[in-house]
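not sure who needs this but someone in the group chat was asking about Transposase MuDR plant domain-containing protein from Rhododendron griersonianum so here u go. i didnt clean anything up, its just raw.
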Amino acid sequence: MTDEDKEPMFVRLAEEFDVDFSHPHVKAVTNYMLNGRYSDYHHELYHRIKKRVKKNTAKRSKVEVLHCCGSKCFVQRREELKESEIGRIEFYKETHCKKGFWTSEGAEKNYMEMMKLNNQPVPEGETPMTEDEICDKVLGRAIGYVRGLGYKVRPNTSTKVAHAMRAQLHECTKRADEADRRAEVAERRAEELTEEVISQRSTIDFLTEKTNRLESLYKKLASRMDMGSSPT
């Protein structure tokens, strides 16, 4: 810490306290104390920076997907491609693929998954997913920024609401389909039971008729036996 750096501090101390720095020993003691405080601050700052560097290094080592924008932020790169009017999926490719080479296998895998979802057929009665919804599904959602667009782009609240409503609609549709399926199963079971009852009634009628015939034959046989055993 140079004397030039200390000069504003001496001026501030003279304004705040009743101290005379014209005395050599007073200035020497103050100078000693300032040097000590500066040394402590420098030491603490050094360890803070070292800790932060270590933490950031550990974070970077866990990053599986790298971009190819260099020192440019995604917002700047998006502004450069503004005239191209590319969607969010193709922008992901622009920022993770350079001259046909992907920055990592993870980036290529994410892009292929996005294209698969974007090109898959849409079932009848359902609404196709938007590019924002596809990217959010593949890349995941983050707090305070949009993945694939950088930290300066905030999540669109309307997109969140639309996504939530779509999920709720899908859940309601799923429940309605399940209820229809159960109703269909119950109706089919009722028809089977009705047919079973009709079949049982037919069997009962057949057995009743057969029993009546046997009883009639038994009565006739008993009558003949009685007539044959009576005295002449």
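also Strands lie at 97-98, 101-102. if thats useful
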